[in-house]
Specification:
It is globular, with a radius of gyration of 18 Å. The two termini are about 30 Å apart. The strands form 2 sheets. Strands 3-4-5-6-7-8-9 form a 7-stranded parallel β-sheet. The chain has a two-stranded antiparallel sheet with strand order 1-2. Helices cover about 40% and strands about 15% of the residues. By secondary structure, it is α/β, with parallel strands linked by helices. It binds NADP nicotinamide-adenine-dinucleotide phosphate. NADP nicotinamide-adenine-dinucleotide phosphate (NAP) binds next to helix 9.
Length: about 280
């Protein structure tokens, strides 16, 4: 599995990791086998959240990573309604207990809510000083949110921005990715398969993926994931609830696309116009 520097953290993190949204709805044995197969194959970045299954997904993760915590880059998220200074501290403690660990590698604000960012970030700072989190980041932040966050904490503090990114939703390429690259913030692409609505083999785009996949003895999903991480700032976290799916996703690590193939995918799944409200960076 390819590793990359994760924003300013000085940590090398797997370019393809593992999501866990709805993982608790799968059979427990299958869900834990999927995460473990993923870990075996180098997908050591595991993304979870207190939101997922109201904590049940974190418990599945705990079971899957038991005995191999040190090999994992473990990420969880605080809900905006808990993201006051005190609430963030308490939410983190609850996540640590469910995950049966004493630290997170990265802790994210799931999305912006009513609490001032200053309060959430002050809690993140304190958690970091206490060794309960190694780094922290944000999620679902657009450029104006990122500007505001950066004004509060300066450069080199925000580890990542976790955002929606898949072949049919490339809006972050307009301004969010350039902003993150300028400020050294890792971009983590969530829902890389469109949350289960992956382009089918009978669609024009699906055929392009299939043809490119065949040329590499790969699969359309592996081609899609590799396209998403073609820029060095980007990571991705597909969710799989079977070991077979996890194994396929991990295979992306060895795949390399040519610039002609990237251009073909770019044409088949166009970026779409830049919203006029976006600043030019
Ligand atoms: N920060 C945020 O606001 C936010 C929002 C959404 C998601 N996320 C994170 O991003 C992760 C990924 O996004 P997502 O769960 O929305 O969706 P996704 O990863 O785009 O898609 C998951 C779907 O793809 C299927 N799948 C995975 N690998 C497959 C394979 N090799 N072959 C066929 N099907 C495959 C899964 O099926 P099976 O389950 O049957 O394997 C599941 O139905 C989440 O789990 C979560 O950790 C974060």
């Amino acid at each position: 599995m390819e590793l990359r520097n994760f924003g300013p953290t000085q940590r090398e993190v797997a370019v393809v990791g593992q999501g866990t949204w709805y993982l608790e709805t799968a059979k427990r044995a299958s869900a834990t086998a999927a995460l473990r197969r993923g870990l075996d194959l180098g997908m050591t970045h595991i993304d979870t959240a207190e939101l997922y299954g109201s904590g049940a997904a974190e418990e599945v993760v705990a079971e899957a990573i038991a005995g191999r915590r040190d090999a994992v880059f473990l990420v969880s998220k605080v809900l905006p309604q808990n993201a006051s200074r005190k609430g963030t501290m308490l939410a983190c403690e609850r996540s640590l207990a469910r995950l049966q660990t004493n630290r997170l590698d990265c802790y994210l604000l799931h999305w912006r809510g009513r609490y001032p960012l200053e309060d959430t970030f002050a809690a993140f700072d304190q958690l970091q000083r206490e060794g309960k989190i190694r780094s922290w980041g944000v999620s679902n932040f657009d450029v104006s949110d990122l500007d505001e966050a950066q004004k509060i904490v300066g450069d080199g503090r925000i580890a990542c921005n976790q955002v929606l990114y898949h072949l049919q939703e490339r809006a972050i390429e307009h301004a969010v990715i350039p902003w993150c690259e300028k400020h050294g913030v890792a971009v983590v692409a969530y829902s890389p398969f469109g949350h289960g609505s992956f382009p089918g083999p009978r669609t024009a785009g699906g055929r392009v993926l299939q043809e490119i996949a065949e040329a590499h003895h790969a699969t359309p999903r592996q081609v899609a994931l590799r396209f998403l991480v073609r820029r060095p700032s980007v990571f991705t976290i597909p969710k799989a609830s079977t070991a077979e799916h996890a194994g396929e996703n991990a295979g992306t690590g060895d795949l390399r696309l040519t610039s002609a193939e990237i251009a073909r995918i770019d044409t088949a799944f166009p970026l779409g116009p830049r919203p006029s409200s976006l600043p030019v960076l």
